[in-house]
Amino acid sequence: MSAYFSVEFQYTKKDIGKIGKIYNALLACGLKFKSGYYESENDSWEDIIAWNQNKFADDFELGYEEHHSHDYKQMLFDFYDFSEVRLFILNVHGAAEISFHLIIPEADLLEDTHLCDIMSKTDKMKWIEQLAIDMWRQGGICSIQVGWEGSECGISMEEMINGIKPIAEPFAIVPSALYRAEWGLEKREIEGDGIFIYNKEHWYYLSV
């Protein structure tokens, strides 16, 4: 299985309402719907959104022994020349937030420097950074956390309120009110009362 780079758009459940607006925001930011994914290839845009809305209304979380066909349905998109752009929903029943994960094969973002590490492709990472900023400007997102295959999952808003650093490998976007200088990360303010934070240590991806 391919290793994936993940952009996690985190939303507070009580503020979402219709999840179709999240999908439409992705289109407004430049993604193009391609198809459903993994046994949902022939499902339409409307069918997938309706299915996922019903799951969201029930605060559905797939059980460990439950068949994947009961889960939220995934979508494939076209975006620049990435070989695969896939969106899936990860929900924990009873949690305050729900996450929409946009994943891209790591191989699309890396280039061998012939040294001791592999460097992220600057131009392609900038495309993803701009997509994240554009999505933040659409409103309604409580955080955007980014990481490689081996990164931790994004932290919750409660954890961030308590001062825990978000996953920023190599960047994240958080509300201005929650930014902490002690995180030791570069920052800049962006539209929508957000702080774009950047982690230079995770620009280079260690080769194993």
Give Rg in angstroms: 17 Å
- Give the class from helix and strand content and strand pairing: alpha+beta
Q: In what order do the strands lie side by side in the largest sheet?
A: 2-3-4-5-1-8-9-11-10
Order of helices and strands: EHEHEEEEEHEHEEEE
Q: What is the share of helical residues?
A: 10-25%
Distance between the termini: 17 Å
Largest sheet report: 9 strands, antiparallel
Q: Would you count the extended β strands for me?
A: 12
| Beta content | 25-35%
List keywords for this structure.
208 residues; alpha+beta; nine-stranded antiparallel sheet; three-stranded antiparallel sheet; globular
Describe this structure in words.
The chain has 208 residues and is of the alpha+beta class. It is built from four helices and twelve strands; from the N terminus they run βαβαβββββαβαββββ. The strands form two sheets. A nine-stranded antiparallel beta sheet has the order 2-3-4-5-1-8-9-11-10, covered by helices on one side. A three-stranded antiparallel beta sheet has the order 6-7-12. Strand 6 and strand 7 form a beta hairpin. The protein is globular and about 45 Å long. The two termini are 17 Å apart. The model has no long low-confidence stretch (mean pLDDT 89).
